[in-house]
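Look over both lines before class:
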Amino acid sequence: MKEIKHIVISGNIGVGKTTLSKKISKKFDWELQLEEVDDNPYLDDFYKSMRDWSFHLQIFFLNSRFNQIQKISESKKIVIQDRSIYEDYEVFTKTLYDSGVLKRREFDNYKRLYNTILKYISEPDLLIYLRNTDIDKIISNIEKRSRNFEKAIDKKYLQKLNLYYENWIGNHPKEKVLTIDLSVNDFMEDPEFLKKIYSMIEKKINELT
């Protein structure tokens, strides 16, 4: 029987990852590894000038995520991680590069380091993908949390991220993905939908083990 150890919750900015991961960790008594946002020294500068700070930001997240994975491997509990190291590259870094924000030499440098790190880590046992095709709803969620640096987030950037997420998830092993669509349903407003999410997670884990 396979033991589940590492679960990742993935999705666009403002989709509800942090909020839901906190609820899931409490519900199942899982350890939680949150994305470094409040103590991130580059986010504010990044949203003011993506071209100048995108490489610095992505390297920061790459290092942070690698450190988290090391802690996860040492933990005795099941761990749910807010975002994966894979989407850092497959979604965010590729979007920035393909949009002309990240320079070729920066992208190549990042990719070399990323590929080196991959040799020393294992893929998560389960990826919970939060899908939301309603960009206006995502923007509303971002506005509600009132982070000053996020006021400059461009709608087109969020739309591109959604496209890259769909492409990445589409190429991920289907048996290791649980997709939860939040385009219409809202787990914050609908307790029954939240219960349904818990049931979906339990069912998926039973299938994997």
